[in-house]
Amino acid sequence: MTDAVPAVPAATVVPVRDGPDGIEVLMLRRNSKLAFGGMWVFPGGRVDDADADPARPDDELAAARRAAVREAMEEAGIAVDPGDLVPFSHWTPPEAAPKRFSTWFFLAPAWDVGEIVIDGSEIHDHAWLRPSVAVEQRDAGDIELAPPTWVTLWQLSLMSGTEDALRRARERQPRRYATHVVFTDRGMVTLWDGDAGYVDGDADRPGPRHRLWMLPDGWRYESTLD
Fold it and tell me: 225: which of 16, 48, 75, 90 is 20 to 30 A away, CA to CA?
């Protein structure tokens, strides 16, 4: 058994606004030749050494905030106030993943961000999407999403609007997702802390659920923690 690839610190910002039919998020489509190629993602990337807060050099969350602000400008041309960023979740991929990022997800209000500017190189397209529509498009095979993006969209689809999403995020601790992947006769399922099968990988173990079924006929999130 080989050692896990070290997880690189990263940060993602989820710009949210209220559209005519409810909450919307800004999503970007990555160049198909790059990491996560062709997927629709939120603005984000690795945390650079320069993102460390000089006053708090060991503050992981502060560095992630600065990286999120920088990436929002670099990838979408939008200015985000670091004080507006609300920690939403933290994601670590399975130890067997060939490339691993330890990523903070932040919500950011985006009522007046202006025109979205993408570079046409790293980012090939953008769209403001209702979270529920993005989830439906993935199941229809129209777009590709990574599990952290999908779960974030699913959770936001339950919110009544931007203020509701920001309020809920401020009122709770950011949930941490250290992912375990299990293959069953039904298909692949990702398990997170709090699931009855998380420790031993037994997806059939009775008990609480905190998982994402990634099945051929669609993805399904189960959580008894919410």
Answer: 16
